[in-house]
Automatic annotation (TrEMBL):
<dbReference type="InterPro" id="IPR003825">
    <property type="entry name" value="Colicin-V_CvpA"/>
</dbReference>
<dbReference type="GO" id="GO:0009403">
    <property type="term" value="P:toxin biosynthetic process"/>
</dbReference>
<keyword id="KW-1133">Transmembrane helix</keyword>
<keyword id="KW-0472">Membrane</keyword>
<dbReference type="GO" id="GO:0016020">
    <property type="term" value="C:membrane"/>
</dbReference>
<protein>
    <submittedName>
        <fullName>CvpA family protein</fullName>
    </submittedName>
</protein>
<feature type="transmembrane region" description="Helical">
    <location>
        <begin position="102"/>
        <end position="123"/>
    </location>
</feature>
<feature type="transmembrane region" description="Helical">
    <location>
        <begin position="62"/>
        <end position="82"/>
    </location>
</feature>
<keyword id="KW-0812">Transmembrane</keyword>
<feature type="transmembrane region" description="Helical">
    <location>
        <begin position="33"/>
        <end position="50"/>
    </location>
</feature>
<dbReference type="Pfam" id="PF02674">
    <property type="entry name" value="Colicin_V"/>
</dbReference>
<feature type="transmembrane region" description="Helical">
    <location>
        <begin position="7"/>
        <end position="27"/>
    </location>
</feature>
Length: 155
């Protein structure tokens, strides 16, 4: 089996994520992403509960929802970043730094495969240009296509 041009691009993408996250480490990378995602999710789910309290405190309703969202997002973000700092200090010894980087390698692999999967999904959804010939030679497309096809059926 030979490596196609799409696979070379996918290998570059995968290598980028693996190297980046391995150097950064699992703790920093995971908690940096988790802080934004969980902060946004908590703020989105609960800002309506905090909005009346902010309205009562400030007297005006015009920016209450935005302020409630920001308070929830920033407080969740800061709590997760504090956990990151605490766990990062636990992983300060040399042997645990190696574990942090090894776990970072695995996380980078997963992140890279997710990005490649999203690219393949977008290629399958779009109808402007046919990539069938290029993807028919791709090892990544063959391995990930069963997962991608299940997801793209939803669109």
């Amino acid at each position: 089996m030979r490596i196609g041009s799409a696979d070379i691009v996918f290998l570059i993408i995968l290598s980028f994520f693996v190297i980046k996250v391995t150097v950064t480490g699992f703790i920093d990378e995971f908690f940096s992403k988790a802080a934004v995602i969980v902060g946004g999710l908590v703020a989105f789910l609960f800002y309506k509960l905090l909005t009346p309290v902010i309205t009562e405190l400030l007297g005006g309703k015009s920016l209450s929802a935005v302020i409630a969202f920001l308070i929830l997002f920033l407080s969740t973000y800061l709590i997760i970043k504090l956990v990151q700092v605490f766990l990062g200090s636990l992983f300060s010894s040399e042997s645990l730094k190696n574990l942090d980087r090894s776990l970072g390698f695995c996380l980078g692999l997963v992140e890279g495969l997710i990005v490649i999967g999203v690219i393949l999904m977008l290629i399958n959804i779009q109808t402007f240009v046919s990539f069938d010939k290029i993807l028919s030679e791709s090892i990544f497309a063959k391995i990930l296509s069963p997962f991608i096809l299940d997801i793209t059926k939803q669109f």
